[in-house]
Amino acid sequence: MVRPGAGRRLLGFGARRARSRAAAGRAHVDAADRGRAAGPPGLRRAAGARPAAAAGRRHRRRRPRRRRAGPARTVRGAAGPLCAGRPAMSGSVAWATADPYADALRAGRGPLFLRRTDGWLLPLEVERWCGRADPVDLAVLDRCEGAVLDVGCGPGRLVAELAAQGRTVLGVDVSEAAVEHTGQLGGTALRRSVFEPLPGEGRWDTVLLMDGNIGIGGDPAALLERVTRLLRPGGLLIAETVPGHVDERARVEVVAGAATTVRGAAFPWARLGTPALLRYARRAGWRPVAQWEAGGRCFAALRSRSTSNRAEPPNRTAVISSQRVRKPSGESPVASR
């Protein structure tokens, strides 16, 4: 009942119960409402409050509690990794931290492209790189001699295959994801650029530049000179080229799609057909020994100059211990891929 007069009061047993429980600091919930989901915060009434008290007063919304600072959790978003609990990075910072090449290797699939500054796209065969050596690869490996250095080994299918055959082999790649994948396949790889100091320099019997890696650094002449210093005198280089008369240098970036904003930093790259490779090689004193095509892919084999004062072949112990050398400088992962 509500008695008219000065103010409004609740009469009866319910009023006494509400007052007593409110005084005790406990909220009263009717049996019929127990277990129901709470409504929106702005529509809930403080439990135990008297209706008379609510009349003529506005409900004060409670301030949300501040979350305690703690370690940020990595969240993968469309624009790259962000941190929960911290302000989102600006577009330029998120772009700089993106690594679509590493993401594709860890996923084992594309799409992944090299994109020139004019927008031209070159598809990258991530699925083939992340798989096991195919028949075309195996035919190339049959030509390898002695200890093998796979430059730009990527996820390591060739290194793993040679290791399974009991061969002395080392892969080198600037991508941490590529080196990790090589190890998962059972191969040994070193995270380093080919232009940095490497174990066994001047003593390798064979150097591989597969999957278009003759383009590393964007300067084929400089790369051929570097390989000369890695090989023993008269050592063997096997390089994979592109079909046709191609001799191209460009700055490229790795992207996950034609319209994506997730891309790696730009870096110099080259694309060579076999005729162009042979021109560079002859100028540097290399001797062509074979060229062939298989499975839509093109290859050339060359012998290095026969002048060097180091002829001791590398051994497996030296190769494995090389994993403890210093880390490489920052370089685009695809630059040695």
TrEMBL record:
GO terms for biological process: methylation. One of its GO terms (molecular function) is methyltransferase activity. Residues 37-55, 71-81 have a biased composition (Low complexity). Residues 56-70 have a biased composition (Basic residues). Residues 27-36 have a biased composition (Basic and acidic residues). Transmembrane segments: none annotated. Residues 148-235 form the Methyltransferase domain. Signal peptide: none annotated. It comes from the Bacteria. Residues 22-81, 305-337 are annotated as: Disordered. Keywords: Methyltransferase, Transferase. This is Methyltransferase domain-containing protein.
